[in-house]
Amino acid sequence: MAAVSFQSVTKTYSMPQGPFQALDAVSLDIEEGEFFGLLGPNGAGKTTLISILAGLARATSGRVLVQGADVQSDYQAARRKLGVVPQELVFDPFFSVREALRFQSGYFGVENNGDWIDELLHSLGLADKAQANMRQLSGGMKRRVLVAQALVHKPPIIVLDEPTAGVDVELRQTLWQFIAKLNKQGHTVLLTTHYLEEAEALCNRIAMLKRGHVVALDRTSELLKAASGNVLVFKTDTPLPPALVPLARVTGRVVQMAAQDAQEVERHLAQLREAGVDVQDIEIRRSDLEDVFLNVMAAHAAPGWESQVPSLPAAQRATP
Amino acid sequence: MSGWRMLFYKEVLRFWKVGFQTVAAPVITSMLYLLIFGHVLEDHVKVYDRIGYTTFLVPGLVMMSMLQNAFANSSSSLVQSKIMGSLVFQLLTPLSHRAWFVAYVGSSVVRGLVVGLGVLAVSFYFAVPQFAAPLWIVVFAVLGATLLASLGVVAGLWADKFDQMASFQNFIIVPMTFLSGVFYSVGSLPPFWKTVSLFNPFFYMIDGFRHGFFGQSDASPWLSLAIVGSACLCVSLLALRLLRIGYKIRS
Question: How confident is the model at residue A116, as a pLDDT?
Fold first, then answer.
């Protein structure tokens, strides 16, 4: 039985300017013990999908099962299995950290949970803030409390919606160590993030969403293999020759160009030399998840793509 | 399943932590009413025989504070946590709509009763009311507070902003409480306003509550009980339904 099963989940919001389809028949299964990444640009439907899973929103059609429990008809069983860290940095200003955790535990019917709360406070570096009012905490500390609140009832499935947005490096490290430990102990983790290097390092399987559709779904290693190849990275102040512009990704002075092999690298360099481009700090690296992501998104940029190659595995479509 | 108890406890603690605003302030306001209206009108207004005006005023003021505070508690708690976003912590839990209802309405009734007892205690300084039929006092106090607490749940779910909440309070709750005979007997009103008052459920709450103190009232306490009881049932069912469908809290 899948830990989480999305079965052709569709969500349509009625907006003043007409209906908006946030999700279109999204189906995917997350297996027990996976560290699963849900990636996609802003507005792709990641948070909508998680909201439907968590019961914060209802699917227009389709259904979601959490270890077999339907999130609508059997919502109590489903929610007990889920620990959700919301994206927004929200808190209740009336209470202290320990109170917030005690309440959350009590809502799930778990009482006398002091030992586990102490352990959470300790693991997340909150022990000395236990009595502090939520208002007095910094943003990073509030984020830690959100994580603790999600885990207070020991859920088998942990859902993190962009937990590291706007979080400093130290907290990111602590957080990932802690979540990775929980994953090793058997917890299933579902993560959405914009930090692709985090997803690459942590997730064993990844789904990419775009405009409410799953556009790629595979093991992280397969996704990387499918995009196998190298990337030529260099810096320049001169404009690129028109022939190379469509192949290059430019960020300020940094230019990145995909290249299958050494010969292609040579061809690129030759063209650059001919065009008289001043190339500095040359580097050749393996394609990473960010390259895969950008390729997948670009491949699905054209309107009407849904009907083009629906039967091909996503990873193949992702090949540049 | 005991999740509702924790939510109830949290909601009681929420108002108790700011008790200066939520309990002391309304008690002081009522004391000012007693001081000023009692002083000005004591020798000029006589509603029931053998009952001074200040004494007459006490039950109405107690009830009015209870109703307003029961309403303010559930409505402001919901609006605030909706706007702050902290309602999500409850939305993520397995708490049922019944658990939400019991916790929000229960804690608001507690606040209403605490404020009501506070006003009553202070009023002893001005006039000692009678307690002719204590059971009616308790019945109307609990029913009235439950009705307004449920209405607060409805308003708190409906309002998206604090000013919508303020409109609800200023244009519905305050006029209905003031036009319910807190400061007078509806018998003394001109016929038109008397008829209007008879359609105001707040009138029956106050009238029935006052009957418990003086053993006399404008309407029969049984009629008041029937009307207040039905109103309470209707609003509670509405609040329960809105909670069940997640009105404005689950998209």
Answer: 94
Q: Taking the model in full, what pTM does it have?
A: 0.89
Residue A181 maps to a domain: no
- The answer to whether residue A121 sits within a structural domain is no
Chain A segment 219-258 residues within 8 A of B by beta carbon are none
Question: Residue B215 contacts by C-beta under 8 Å, 6 or more apart in sequence?
Answer: B130, B132, B133
Tens digits of per-residue pLDDT, A171-217?
A: 888 889 999 999 999 999 999 988 888 899 999 999 999 999 999 89
Query: Is B3 among the domain residues?
Result: no
Residue B94 is nearest to which of A75, A99, A105, comparing CB atoms? Answer: A75
Contact state of A51 with B9 under an 8 Å Cβ cutoff: no
- For A303, list phi and psi in degrees, rounded to 5: -70, 145
Cβ atoms within 10 A of the Cβ of B154, count? 21
B10 lies in a domain?
no
- Distance from B107 to chain A by nearest Cα, in Å? 15
| Domain contains B13 | no
> Are A92 and B5 an interchain contact pair (Cβ–Cβ within 8 Å)?
no
Residue range A209-230: mean pLDDT, rounded: 86
What tokens does A106 get?
A: 């009590």
Angstrom distance (rounded) from CA B86 to CA A92:
6
Residue B41 tokens, joined = 């009108």
Give the least confident one: A42-46, A286-290, B120-124, B144-148. Answer: A286-290
The most confident of the ranges A126-135, B98-107, B197-206 is: B98-107
Q: How far is B91 from chain A (nearest CA, A)?
A: 7
**Residue B118, CB half-sphere, CA atoms under 13 Å: how many?**
22
ipTM associated with this complex: 0.90
The number of distinct structural domains making up chain B is 1
- Those of residues 44-63 in A touching chain B at CB distance below 8 A are 51, 54-58
Domain limits for position A229: 224-304+313-317
pLDDT for position A310:
36
% of chain B at pLDDT higher than 90: 72
Is B251 contained in some domain? no
Cβ atoms of residues A135 and B86 within 8 Å: no
Q: Domains in chain A: how many in total?
A: 1
Distance CA B117, CA B183 (A): 19
Domain holding B68, by residue range, is 19-245
CA proximity to B123, closest of B218, B234, B29, B23:
B29
